[in-house]
User: What shape does this take?
Amino acid sequence: MDGSGKTTQMHRLAERLRSLGRTVLETAEPGGPPIARKIRRILLDSANQELSPTTEILLYFASRAQNVDQWIQPALGRGEIVLSDRFTDSSLVYQGVGRGLGIGTVSDLDRIACRGLKPDLTILVDVDAEASLARARSRNQAEPHCETRMDDQAIEFHLKVHQAYHALAAAEPGRVKLVDGRAGMDEIEREVWSIVSAHV
Assistant: This one.
């Protein structure tokens, strides 16, 4: 969820892995390589409220495809660990459920853009929709920028997203792990590491 502290936790996890001698690629979605970051600006710009759900999901997967081709697959080929701040799971809940485009649509686009690439592990830093939105909007006021289009959506949209994340975690408990995002940053970091350390 937005405002959950997931980006901070990803950076902390990357540093811990590097301290153990592992090579780590950190990336974020939408974003990553320069072309994908240009697509990000369109997707998240608060001025682009008229962006249709279909255009939105196609742009997310265009950005993701560039990230997979240019950064993620080459890093995996070199034996590196890849940490991504969001991936297809986010499209599943935000566009598939939140926008009502359907899981099948997301799966079809994922087959084209990612060609079977799926995270070994997904960590959901869980905060409720109201807290998520409040944190994100507070962050946006403290650090003014134009990337607020998703944060500007109604609470009903964010409630659907939150419910969809929980449904995903229930459907794939071996891969999707829930961490309580209401805890302190250090406590969350310890919980994240207790999960990840079993995989490295």
